[in-house]
TrEMBL record:
<feature type="domain" description="ABC transmembrane type-1">
    <location>
        <begin position="55"/>
        <end position="246"/>
    </location>
</feature>
<feature type="transmembrane region" description="Helical">
    <location>
        <begin position="167"/>
        <end position="190"/>
    </location>
</feature>
<feature type="transmembrane region" description="Helical">
    <location>
        <begin position="227"/>
        <end position="251"/>
    </location>
</feature>
<protein>
    <submittedName>
        <fullName>Carbohydrate ABC transporter permease</fullName>
    </submittedName>
</protein>
<feature type="signal peptide">
    <location>
        <begin position="1"/>
        <end position="20"/>
    </location>
</feature>
<dbReference type="InterPro" id="IPR000515">
    <property type="entry name" value="MetI-like"/>
</dbReference>
<dbReference type="Pfam" id="PF00528">
    <property type="entry name" value="BPD_transp_1"/>
</dbReference>
<keyword id="KW-0812">Transmembrane</keyword>
<dbReference type="InterPro" id="IPR035906">
    <property type="entry name" value="MetI-like_sf"/>
</dbReference>
<keyword id="KW-0813">Transport</keyword>
<keyword id="KW-0732">Signal</keyword>
<keyword id="KW-1133">Transmembrane helix</keyword>
<keyword id="KW-0472">Membrane</keyword>
<keyword id="KW-1003">Cell membrane</keyword>
<comment type="similarity">
    <text>Belongs to the binding-protein-dependent transport system permease family.</text>
</comment>
<feature type="transmembrane region" description="Helical">
    <location>
        <begin position="87"/>
        <end position="111"/>
    </location>
</feature>
<feature type="transmembrane region" description="Helical">
    <location>
        <begin position="59"/>
        <end position="80"/>
    </location>
</feature>
Length: 261
């Protein structure tokens, strides 16, 4: 209920502002129901900001990057949970140090690498970090989840002559479904809203993602706020839907029917 009270009113005001007639001065007080209602903001936002193409580009990046991030992070977290204590301590310490480094400090070396490979001005630099699990945080979360499983589970799998990959797929990963749901939602939201990486690597307007398209709308006409808010609504709907689906997965993670598994 607290989350609803915090997030729903701004979303309602966002939708309300997007349905305001463009060209009108902003109302002195926020209105939940603008008068008159108009969808002109949406009609102008798509051609002006190239939202259709930008939405497709963002979807391609998210569809490729999010599953890869979760998959690689779960592999790395599982391997870390089954490694020796000395190896685990070293890798966890290195991961924590990596998390302390600011993201902007990695932009220059990554840009040099992608430029040398001829991958700038493509969507590849936006997807490639997923091959490393995207963030050490994802790996550490999976490591804690897998480490918390009973040792008897791993012993039983070992006695059954299951390979580590079979143990991960058949037993360990299904038990940590809530962690997978949470990390999937987090990865999607961070990928979908990523502004800095597309700004650095993408120059062709046809390859713009939604954050860059929204920036284009913001600088075209800062006073025509319904057009920009219409674009913001388009960019906000997918993360909200993913959050709702992830919450549903959380609530039904112990469903005995297995319908949500």
């Amino acid at each position: 209920m607290f989350v609803v009270l915090v997030f729903v009113p701004p979303l309602l005001l966002l939708v309300s502002g997007s349905l305001t007639e463009p060209g009108q001065p902003p109302p002195p007080t926020p209105r939940l129901v603008p008068d008159p209602l108009s969808v002109t903001g949406y009609q102008e936002a798509f051609p002006l900001g190239g939202l259709a193409r930008a939405t497709l580009n963002s979807a391609v990046v998210a569809v490729c990057a999010v599953p890869l991030s979760v998959l690689v992070a779960s592999w790395a977290g599982f391997a870390l949970a089954r490694a020796s204590r000395r190896v685990t301590a070293v890798i966890v310490a290195a991961s924590l140090l990596a998390l302390m480094a600011p993201a902007t400090a990695l932009l220059l070396p990554r840009f040099v690498v992608f430029r040398f490979l001829g991958l700038t001005d493509t969507l590849v630099p936006l997807i490639a970090p997923a091959l490393l699990g995207a963030s050490p945080l994802y790996v550490l979360i999976y490591y804690l989840a897998f480490r918390g499983l009973p040792a008897d589970l791993y012993d039983t799998c070992r006695l059954s002559d299951l390979t580590p990959l079979q143990t991960w797929w058949r037993f360990a990963l299904p038990v940590v479904r809530p962690v997978t749901a949470g990390l999937t939602a987090l990865s999607f939201i961070l990928t979908w809203s990523n502004f800095l990486d597309p700004l650095v690597y993408v120059y062709d307007r046809d390859l713009f993602t939604l954050p860059l398209a929204l920036r284009s709308l913001a600088v075209l006409d800062p006073t025509n706020f319904p057009v920009f808010l219409a674009g913001a609504v388009v960019a906000t709907v997918p993360p909200v839907l993913v959050f709702v689906l992830a919450q549903r997965w959380f609530l039904h993670s112990d469903d005995p029917t297995g319908r949500f598994r």
